[in-house]
Design brief:
The structure is a homodimer of 177-residue chains. Chain A is mainly alpha-helical and 177 residues long. Chain A has helices at 3-19, 26-33, 37-43, 47-66, 69-74, 79-92, 99-105, 112-137, 142-163, 166-172. The first copy, chain A, contains ten helices and no strands. Chain A binds a DNA duplex (18 and 18 nucleotides) through residues 2, 4, 25-27, 35-39, 41-43, 45-47.
DNA sequence: GTCTATAATTTGATAGAC
DNA sequence: GTCTATCAAATTATAGAC
């Protein structure tokens, strides 16, 4: 991927994480990147293409930040605590919602390509968490625990974001840690 | 409130719950109600006015459905189970996300009037749940439990909606019931 | 790869007639 | 209270020059 495309994706991600899929336009992105809107169309033909690409690279980056599960175990790090930290950092450092949490909320109004990528984010995260719970507790209820954790984290992000208080996030997820 | 305004609010709510604040327009609403877009402007001068009104009446209806807490206790009904049912019904009967859950996710991109109303939804719900936990358990950790429950329900709604499976909702919130 | 130019559509909003 | 008429701006998208 070229650096221009990276720039575009970065700007687009920020805008989507602020107000959802309909909160960005080719012109606005072009202005911020310093090119023309038609140039954005060159890299991403349609809005759905760009939206799906944003969701795809967000998922990749997110899983990268989680790191390799086996290595975490080897280093005697609690994978669940790592997982929580990645979520929390999104709220405190990026100062924005989880992109796929937001797009997940409005999934019924998204173009199929975008909705599909959002679904993949959730599937891959549940997969990661399920493995983490299996390694940690060896329980057969690992998948249920995974869905519980992901749901609680996404919901806590919304609560904390609306009420404008990071302590709300910490209190809501207290039972996880 | 007149019936026309009710009609407009009803149609608008449905559209917002599908794709967020930017997923409805005065023209689309007018078409579905059977009037002209300028007539919608008569009832709700600006889009922010309409958005805030939708959030306000959604909150009122939601709290109405919860019912009076003291009466629930008197009738020996578990208020938490009632609360969960109201959320679950939104997903199964209305077949849509919680309006304020969705708007809460994109709160950073909303006009202040709308964001304010969304915030009130969360405040009032935490209040209701806190009282419920106080009555049920008499615990001082009632507010924390309230935030946990609300966050988990909103997050579970997103998960279930994205993955297109109501069982995901039930599994995610299993620890609540 | 980025540009100019432009098209077609949609959008939020207003003025004034009935 | 609803309509017609209209507006300016924004939006997605395309064709073709450099």
């Amino acid at each position: 991927m070229q650096s221009r495309e990276k720039e575009i994706l970065k700007v687009a991600e920020k805008m989507v994480r602020k107000g959802g899929y309909n909160a960005f336009s080719f012109r606005e992105i072009a202005d911020k990147v310093g090119i023309k809107s038609s140039s954005v169309h060159y890299h991403f033909p349609t809005k759905a293409d760009l939206g799906a690409a944003v969701a795809f690279y967000y998922t990749e980056n997110f899983l990268d930040r989680l790191g390799n599960l086996d290595e975490l175990i080897k280093a005697r790090k609690d994978p669940i605590k790592t997982y929580i930290k990645v979520f929390r950092d999104a709220l405190t450092k990026d100062k924005h919602m989880c992109l796929c949490g937001l797009l997940g909320a409005e999934v019924n109004g998204l173009p199929p390509e975008v909705a599909g990528q959002v679904k993949i984010f959730f599937e891959r995260n549940i997969e990661w968490l399920t493995q983490a719970y299996l390694l940690k507790n060896g329980t057969t209820a690992a998948k249920k625990a995974a869905m519980h954790t992901l749901a609680l984290l996404e919901g806590s992000m919304i609560l904390s974001n609306v009420l404008g208080d990071i302590k709300v996030f910490d209190k809501s997820i207290d039972s996880l840690a």
